[in-house]
Amino acid sequence: MGGRDVAAASIWDAAHRRTTVGLLTLVTLVAFEAMAVGTAMPRAVAELDGVAWYAWTFSAFLVTSVVGMVLGGEVGDRRPPGPGVLAGVVVFAAGLVVAGLAQHMAVLVLGRAVQGLGAGVVIVLLYVVAGQAYDSRLRPSLFGAFAAGWVLPALLGPLAAGLLTTHVGWRAVFLGLVPLVAAGLVLLLTGAPGGTPPADAAPWRSRAGWALLAGAGIAALQYAAQRLDLAAAGIAVLGTAALAAGLRRLLPRGTVRARRGIPAVVASRGLLAGAFFGMDALLPFVLTEQHGWSAATAGLPLTAGAVGWVVAAQLQGRRPDVPRQRVLRLGALVLTVGVAATATVAVPALGGWPAYLTWGLAGVGMGLGMPSVGVLLLDQSPEAERGANSAALQISDATASAICVGLSGVLVAGAADAGGPLWPAVLAAVAVLTVPALLTARVAGRTVAPAADPSCATNLGR
Fold it and tell me: Is the pLDDT of residue 414 over 70?
């Protein structure tokens, strides 16, 4: 492809349009299901008389999605991604049907587990398709579009799910997605290149068992955070041990130390996600409990964050010439300021209103940082390792988010149960969550490996 053709290429040109629409449709629908299920679940629990099963509808999805991510990565590194995407979408759709037709909570939990498995496979393989079908100069724009595909459901998903649940029934939240998922799959498979298996693919050694162990560890930590009693300590220890053992086999060697290259990229994704989503989950609770906001009003600052994320993601996609590590560092610094400034919600006299500005700023940081991480990963991943590296990226995100959400929840819930003032716990949570954002700014310079340094190669499972 000549220089003029590269300059004129776009994710919306004739060569990429169907693939782009298919990718974004699947991303948006998977994201919508994740955002909407929380709105529909209380009605489902009431109808099926399954309060005791409530937490399992979320934990089952989380555990199997981690397994799906690993399976998707293994398929993507050994076969053309098309059949794998087809299988993942079929499994995801089957889970939607099982959940939507469930007559008992155990069946609904099973449906959620099947959905998680399919969603994990699909999300990872979409990265593999992105690596095959798009030139490196188009990837910033593509990941900017991905950001909109994830964030817009956060804005509209709960409202749409609420309307469906109220006027049609909770089952429509699951069953209504099936034909839309099928349409996105058709667009993707007819537009994306077929591809061939990488010639240098490593011998197959599945890490699905380690993924199951890590997922169970995350679920145990979340369960322990909800209990807040003596038994929770033992559950947390077991969960931490299981998670550490699983992640040791699932993440590139050196991720904890943010070793230069792919390990630092994977670490950056987890640090960004942990800082943002830890505070994102906490903010509505603080505005409700500290300042007496209604549930609807308390969610509006999250909308400001989502808008900031989408706008910044689109802006960074217009400057593919700027090195992505610089954009990542800028995004991390903006996120750090946004998270730290959100400490103002702890001040009773301010009424919580600065949250609109501070969380909008945090969203801008994520809109700059998260697409940059995806671009850095694909630019540095050999074709035979794109699947494994993409899986590691998603696992890092899911793990760090779950840990930080649980940690911030424990800090604030403990203060609320003790009956004392809430603001010291809020300040402590903000301080804790500011640390990973600031660490990302420091790690950003390590996310590009020297081209001639063979020691920077990814080393998974060894």
Answer: no
